[in-house]
Write a structure and sequence with these properties.
840 residues; 6-stranded antiparallel β-sheet; alpha+beta; single chain
């Protein structure tokens, strides 16, 4: 919100010497975020005066039209001066702005008398853009006749030098999206008088006879609890918007359009109440606020035809929707250059309804920004009366009256113990100060009476322009911010002795360090997913990971749910890096996923308990809240593509593959000392023949391998991209608390190599498990070093070659002992998997 200091002064009696920067400092101290303080016409210096055009000579001997103008700039500046100008939007007798020799315009452009087009140009007739007042450069700036005399300083007339505060308004401070709200804050900050433009009903007199105001109605009083329509006829469509009004609109960042539209925007900026003007001649029947009908369409003012949703709140007449309530009007009833009669709508719409509708249509407007943050419940008739008064003053016409409908509303009363702000802030705040600060923000404060639990407390009724004040904590925040956040004492919490990282935190750090050491880079992705992303990773309709917790207010309509797997976000990061030129990528992410328990509603609980903030919730309350929460286990995932090791003098590059994804899982398991087993597995996201199941205590906790070709194609990833995802919480639960010290054997090792022919579907991990079981305690290690398939072993079979290492702790093994242990290991594989010892 941009707010000129001169406009704020109209409603806040600020000291005359207060600058924009000083006011910004006070507002920042009160909790507002002032981004910049700009000066209108910054860079303008020297003589810039008003002048009257007394003569125009058309110079026709040049390639483009040029005028040599005689401009009277007053006796103090030498009377009439000759000035060259190429603009065509003025004539003799017009009042213009002249920069005389010695003036400097924005950008360091110095003005001087110079010879051009065969004449001496003794100054420059200026446009808005040349003065730094706006972007209009189509013609020079023409002032209304009578607004000044030749030779007057043009600065005050144009607002040059006025300071403008640019304030970033947070969602809970919707009232600050107006001069009214910011002037209230400024008056409070300086302790000066405030004149509220939102409570002064302009006297429009008796409605003119001979006509009736246009009727209006609301079919949904829960979403539109106040709807008014004022009717004005006989306006002069040729009247332009006066310069002072255009100047203020531009200072606030709003482009002037036409008088009627400019007046509605001006009143919205002044009061915070959005208004909309309908061309009365285009209306067909009563104007009604209602829900959209299925299949209904609307062409909005931005000339986009929109398909309406039954949840949309629209403004309609007898032919259908003519506007999106609180967001944007329709093109069929738009004010045009010939409009002489208008129906001026001023209403109050539910913030949630407007906010959802604005996001649904991806249509954010100045009106929707205000309604979705909360607009004063009772402001509509005051604001529309102010707008009608301006229209009658500037464009003539007759006022025919107002129609309206309003739903009853009960005021909110909040009980506040007077010592609560002191207890929260940690400093002494007297009861009188608490009451004074609450009244300064517009609250009605009385002492609580009538019931024992309210004796001694304050009964606080928030003002209608503060719908964000709903409980005692909100009132405490208001008191503390007006006291000053810099007054709140700062104290660092003291960590209790003997505390440190939890076991889970230590293991998470250990796993991350291990993956980083293996060449992976940690990334963070947004925890939101949508159906399209789950489709892309190949999850079928019945997969449990499709039952996701839905968000009540998602950031993007395409991602309405919390993630149930890390793969969509991680693979999106991989694809983004590939698209930006990276070839060899290995990334990992660790974080929680959200898994619904059996019977939980994806839309979330209805009416969850809301414990008090005065102390720790009771055990029963905590249990009730925890029961509503879904499971949120931590997962860990990796993704890699390109080369795992680069090419060099040592040899060719090695491409990343499914084995590297499996190795990442074993790296993590080794880091946390968890007994992870790798078996053949299947998962819809992975290649059916290159997928490993990650098993802990006979339970599958994840999968690793090469992504399914359909997933790779759907996401635009490089071929043979590999990934891994596992439940890190399940891995931690199985991790050993204390690692056993490695045994260093002092006896000689006996080495045996065996090649076993097994069916092709038998995993190598199963063969290794059988070898370990059969070899007994003498078998120290098993390593697979060769895999062979071909005619020598037969179709459907393969040869697995293992290096076996035997060692006894107390003696040197004899050849017979070694052979017996080897034969026992081979026999166990034969028993389990029908293995045959390969002889050649």
């Amino acid at each position: 919100m941009r707010a000129p200091l001169s406009w704020l002064r109209e409603f806040a009696a600020l000291p005359a010497d207060v600058t924009g920067r000083q006011l910004a400092d006070r507002l920042i101290r009160a909790g507002l975020e002032v981004e910049t303080v700009d000066r209108i016409g910054a860079g303008v210096s020297g003589p810039v005066v008003t002048g009257r055009v007394v003569a125009i000579e058309e110079l026709t001997e040049f390639a483009k039209p040029i005028r040599y103008c005689g401009v009277d700039v007053g006796p103090a500046y030498g009377g009439t001066r000759g000035i060259i100008c190429g603009a065509r939007n003025f004539t003799t007798g017009d009042l213009v702005v002249v920069a005389l020799p010695g003036a400097v315009l924005p950008g360091g452009f110095a003005i001087g008398a110079r010879r051009t087009y065969g004449r001496t140009s003794d100054g420059m007739i200026c446009s808005e853009r040349e003065l730094g007042l706006g972007d209009d450069h189509a013609g020079i700036l023409v002032l209304p006749n009578g607004s000044a005399d030749p030779g007057d300083d043009a600065g005050p007339l144009l607002g040059i030098g006025d300071e403008v505060l640019d304030i970033a308004v947070t969602p809970d401070r919707g009232y600050c999206l107006s001069i009214r709200g910011l002037a209230r804050e400024a008056a409070t900050a300086y302790g000066v008088a405030f004149t509220d433009p939102g409570t002064q009903l302009v006297d429009l007199g008796e409605p003119s006879p001979g006509g009736q105001p246009h009727p209006c109605a609301s079919e949904d009083l829960a979403s539109c609890d106040l709807f008014t329509l004022r009717t004005v006829v006989g306006l002069d469509p040729a009247v332009p918007t006066p310069p002072w009004l255009r100047r203020r609109l531009r200072a606030c960042g709003v482009r002037p359009v036409s008088l009627v539209v400019d007046v509605t925007n001006y009143v919205m900026l002044e009061t915070g109440q959005p208004l909309h003007a309908f061309d009365l001649a285009a209306l067909r029947g009563p104007v009604t606020a209602r829900r959209a009908r299925r299949g209904e369409q609307l062409q909005t003012l931005d000339h986009v035809v929109r398909d309406l949703d039954p949840d949309d709140l629209v403004i309609a007449d007898d032919r259908g929707a003519i506007g999106l309530a609180g967001t944007m009007g329709g093109a069929d009833t738009e004010i045009g250059p010939a409009s002489t009669a208008v129906a001026l709508e001023a209403a109050h719409f539910a913030a949630a309804v407007v906010g959802r509708m604005s996001r649904r249509h991806r249509l954010s407007s100045e009106a929707s920004r205000r309604f979705e943050r909360g607009v004063d419940r009772v402001l509509a008739p005051y604001a529309s009366a102010r707008a009608v008064a301006l229209l009658l003053e500037l464009a003539g016409g007759s006022y025919l009256g107002m129609t309206g409908v309003e739903a009853p509303a009960e005021p909110t009363v909040i009980t506040l113990p007077p010592d609560r702000p002191s207890a929260v802030a940690g400093l002494a705040i007297g009861v009188a100060d608490v009451i004074g600060h609450l009244r300064a923000v517009g609250c009605d404060v009385t002492a609580g009476h009538g019931s024992p639990e309210r004796d001694g407390s304050l009964a606080v009724t928030p003002p209608p322009w503060r719908p964000d004040l709903t409980d005692p904590a909100d009132l405490v925040e208001e008191v503390i911010r007006l006291v000053g956040y810099d007054e709140v004492p700062a104290s660092l919490p003291v960590a209790p002795a003997g505390r440190g990282l939890t076991r889970g935190q230590r293991l998470r750090r250990r796993a991350g360090t291990a993956l980083a050491g293996a060449g992976y880079v940690e990334v963070l992705s947004y925890p939101f997913v949508g159906p399209a992303e789950l489709d892309a990773i190949g999850l079928p309709a019945g997969d449990p990971r499709r039952r996701a917790l839905l968000l009540a207010n998602p950031l993007r309509a395409e991602q309405p749910a919390m993630r149930t797997t890390l793969l969509p976000g991680l693979l999106a990061t991989l694809r983004r890096n590939v698209s930006r030129g990276s070839d060899d990528i290995a990334v990992f992410e660790a974080g929680p996923v959200v898994l619904l328990r059996e019977g939980q509603d994806p839309a979330g609980p209805t009416g969850p308990p809301r414990p008090a903030v005065s102390g720790r919730p009771a055990a029963a309350e905590l249990e009730a809240i925890q029961a509503l929460l879904p499971d949120q286990p931590r997962h860990l995932a990796v993704a890699l593509c390109g080369n795992r090791s680069p090419a060099g003098w040592w040899g060719e590059a090695r491409p990343a593959g499914w084995a590297d994804a499996v190795a990442a899982a074993t790296t993590v398991a080794d880091a946390v000392r968890a007994p992870l087993q790798v078996r053949a597995g299947t998962d819809p996201s992975f290649h059916p023949g290159r997928c490993a199941a990650l098993v802990v205590a006979d339970a599958v906790i994840g999968h690793a391998g090469e992504l399914h070709p359909r997933v790779v194609a759907a996401l635009g990833l490089p071929p043979r991209t590999a990934a891994m995802e596992l439940s890190f919480d399940a891995l931690v639960a199985a991790a050993a608390d204390v690692a056993a010290a490695p045994a260093v054997g002092t006896m000689p090792v006996a080495k045996e190599d065996v090649a076993l022919v097994v069916p092709a579907e038998v995993p190598a991990a199963a063969v290794i498990d059988a070898l370990r079981h059969g070899g007994g305690e003498l078998l120290e290690s098993v390593r697979l070093f060769d895999v062979y398939t071909g005619s020598q072993v037969g179709e459907g079979r393969r040869s697995l070659a293992f290096a076996l290492r035997f060692r006894a702790a107390d003696r040197t093994l004899s050849a017979a002992e070694t052979a017996a242990a080897r034969d026992a290991a081979v026999a166990e594989v034969t028993r389990r998997h029908g293995a045959v010892l390969r002889s050649a």
